[in-house]
Amino acid sequence: MARIVMKFGGTSVGDCDRIKNVARRVKAEVERGNEVAVVVSAMSGVTNQLVDYCKQISPLYDPREYDAVVSTGEQVTIGLLAIALQELGLDARSWCGWQLPVRTDGAHGKARIESIDTTGMLAAMNKGQIAVMAGFQGLGPDSRISTLGRGGSDTSAVALAAALHADRCDIYTDVDGIYTTDPRIVAKARKLDKITYEEMLELASLGAKVLQTRSVEMAMKHRVRVQVLSSFVDMPGTLVCDEDEIVEKELVSGIAYSRDEAKITLVKVADRPGVAAAIFGPLADNNVNVDMIVQNVSEDGKSTDLTFTVGKADLDRAIKVLEDRKTELAYERLVPDSDVVKVSVIGMGMRSHAGVAQKMFQTLAEKGINILVISTSEIKVSVLIAEDYTELALRALHSAYGLDVQ
Amino acid sequence: MARIVMKFGGTSVGDCDRIKNVARRVKAEVERGNEVAVVVSAMSGVTNQLVDYCKQISPLYDPREYDAVVSTGEQVTIGLLAIALQELGLDARSWCGWQLPVRTDGAHGKARIESIDTTGMLAAMNKGQIAVMAGFQGLGPDSRISTLGRGGSDTSAVALAAALHADRCDIYTDVDGIYTTDPRIVAKARKLDKITYEEMLELASLGAKVLQTRSVEMAMKHRVRVQVLSSFVDMPGTLVCDEDEIVEKELVSGIAYSRDEAKITLVKVADRPGVAAAIFGPLADNNVNVDMIVQNVSEDGKSTDLTFTVGKADLDRAIKVLEDRKTELAYERLVPDSDVVKVSVIGMGMRSHAGVAQKMFQTLAEKGINILVISTSEIKVSVLIAEDYTELALRALHSAYGLDVQ
Fold first, then answer.
1. From the list B71, B72, B84, which residue is nearest A57 (CB)?
2. A353: domain CATH number?
3. I need a labelling partner for B356 at 20 to 30 A (CA). Which of B140, B239, B301, B320 fits?
4. Which residue of chain A has the CA closest to B89?
5. What's the rounded Cα separation, in Å, for the pair A200 and A188?
6. Number of domains in chain A
7. Which strands sit side by side in the sheet containing A102-104, from one edge to the other?
8. CA distance readout (Å), B119 to A98, A115, B35, B125, B146
9. Do B65 and A54 touch (CB under 8 A)?
10. Looking at the structure, do residues A158 and A73 belong to the same domain, yes or no?
11. CB B198: neighbour CB atoms within 10 A?
């Protein structure tokens, strides 16, 4: 017997028929002899409606009251799913965050889970009862309802799996797993059987919006095995797990891309100590996150060109911050460019194998794609290129690293 | 400074604009120098939608899960109203039933309030914070959410007023007070300034559906002064209070009617001891409530006619129970009649004044209205008449007791 946490998102519980369908999937898992706890989101559309109500009343709503309002979406789903499970002859009960409780910090609207007291739930599960827990919510130190921020139900599920020492946390969603790259762009994209936490983290933060980044961090920290699979088709998905569990390691596991970045070049910035701090300090103070940075070699020993990327949504704010300091920073001109894409090659294998970056540069060069900025980490190489080349680059790299479906 | 509990029903908080309107009414009360706690229902339509979801999943839903689902309606409203009050510059916070807690018995779906712990709420109110409490909900002995049954928010408000030792509980609704009779039928109906708990109880249970019966019982028990007034127009309503507070007592306060009754006559029932028990025992066992009962004088010393009323919804069940026992009860035939109405004259004054019943019988006789059944209590006289005469009877009685607007 294994202990499994099953998590279903808003689309999977979008109406009463879909909730009944989820109940059948849970029943099938129970009939395989497994002990099951379920975590659910609000029915799709409900949270948006509730958020909209808060904004209608006041754009500057109190996040504690916002939490009281929006947390009701999940509370409805857990009650309905418990009823649906009972209708199938199973023993089940719903659990609100405050009923366990799921303790969080006090950051209402974007709280972090600190601990989960599973005493009551485990006692009920030991008697054969299926636990149905509301995702996205907990109890703050002020004894008021807190929510984890959008997409937080994944994190709730992983945290519950950790607290219950579950054998696996199955995240049911509207895709059937993690792919080597975006299958809407690369037809030969392949579903991965397994992927490491580290690779998944890079993929998640690079725009493959299947799992919330924080849930992957939590899974990695507590070594929770997470499976991503479809709630609509009945087949295995992708297991996110420890490196040790993956026997056949690929050099490169996937190619990610993000259109959410914009590039800024400061032409002829003074080349002297303290300039980088004078530029990036004010940006950070204004909540502009800077990702990739490249500084050209100075030609005249006095000035240089500095290029970096910021989130597309932050571009206007970044430009204003820099223009306000033009005299102080003494650059000649500022060149923004939002028609760019960041393409990343990700793989644990590149820690021990040289040549991964070289193959990327070469492949892009063969296709005539100019690289604007490069950044690397232990398990990934990212390049910034013109957005028009996104599809071409993805397909070429996917083939070059031998990822295409045979 | 007075301490006031204000209660707003579903229509009053039906959308975001109406919630803002409620916030303005609360602000006005605070600006009069009063300390305020607010109790609200779910936005109109929301509870029905949630109940419908439960029924869609399973007609035989678990009432504990039903409570988890339907209690979310009030939770949304308290959060939104707290935000609206803050938007007006007031300090306010929402309170779910479990947060005080409002302790109830374990009858999920129709729980009764047992006690309210106001420690936390009072501490916050003493600092000038407006408390916004969810009506209709509490915490059962199983530490799960309970609900009080439909219309329970009135009871929540009165119970909170009792627990807070409030000076008054104002129930805002879509009518502007309690009338001497139904103004849709009698154009000369008059709004009462004051009415006693006892009279209001008779009115409430006789079909004047302004206040939930249980809330009036609770108000009477704890001597909570309740005002019924409109949430849409700004004028005093009707105060439900102790008899001592009413200086000018009317002989008769109001005329109520109920179309929810049906009459059954058993012709030629054996006239011997134990027959009444043999008839009404099985009806009670089958959850049929019997209201008025009249037994004719026996003519032959052997048999008699027995007439009584039951709820219209219970009529078919009552007939089946009696027909199943026809041999045992030995009646000649059963005559049902659902085209009847119960008209009641209500007034504290009739305890000390004779002639109230006589005036009723005489007035109806003058209009040629036949009385089918009569029943009386200390403060009311009820008659059953043919339904067609409802309006005629109400207008005639309203004039006869001098209740008409001058």
1. B84
2. 3.30.2130.10
3. B239
4. A58
5. 20
6. 2
7. A113-116, A102-104, A137-139, A145-147
8. 20, 27, 16, 10, 21
9. no
10. yes
11. 22
Q: Which CATH number characterizes residue A91's domain?
A: 3.40.1160.10
Q: Does A136 touch chain B if contact means CB atoms closer than 8 Å?
A: no
Q: Which residues of A touch B76 (CB under 8 A)?
A: 50, 53, 69, 72
Average pLDDT over residues A230-251: 88
Å between B214 CA and nearest CA of chain A: 27
Residue of A nearest to B59 (CA): A87
Q: Is residue A250 domain-shared with residue A169, that is, in the same domain?
A: no
Last residue of a domain, one of A174, A208, A234: A174
Q: Which range of residues forms the domain containing residue B9?
A: 3-174
Strand A380-386 relative to strand A290-295, pairing: unpaired
Please give the share of chain A, as a percent, with pLDDT higher than 70.
98
Task: Give tens-digit pLDDT for A144-185.
Answer: 999 997 669 999 999 999 999 999 999 998 888 999 998 889
Per-residue model confidence (pLDDT) at position B205: 62
Residues A399 and A298 in one domain: yes
Q: Is residue A367 part of a domain?
A: yes
pLDDT number for residue A175: 85
| Contacting B residues, span 53-92, partner chain A, CB-CB under 8 Å | 53-54, 56-58, 60-62, 64-69, 71-72, 75-76, 78-80, 82-84, 86-87
Task: Find chain B residues with C-beta within 8 A of A38's C-beta.
Answer: none
Residue A61 lies in a domain: yes
Using only C-alpha atoms, what is the Rg of chain A? Answer: 24
Tokens of B65: 């899960």
CB A288 within 8 A of CB A321: yes
* Sheet hosting strand B261-270, strand order edge to edge: B290-295, B303-311, B261-270, B333-337
Assess if residue B380 is contained within a domain.
no
Task: Report the candidate in B234, B162, B134, B115 with the shortest Cα–Cα distance to residue B3.
Answer: B162
B238 is a domain residue: no
The structure tokens listed for B213 are 């019966």
Per CB-CB distance under 8 Å, the chain B contacts of A68 are 75, 78-79, 82, 94, 96
**For residues B233 and A354, which has the higher predicted lDDT (pLDDT)?**
B233
Measure CB to CB from residue A53 to each of B16, B62, B67 and give the nearest one: B16
CA–CA distance, A70 with B72 (Å, rounded to integer): 10
Which of A125, A152, A174 corresponds to the end of one domain?
A174
- Report the alpha-carbon distance of residue A39 to residue B274 in Å, rounded: 60
| A96:B69 CB<8 A | no
In this complex, the residue of B56, B58, B82 whose CB is nearest that of residue A86 is: B58
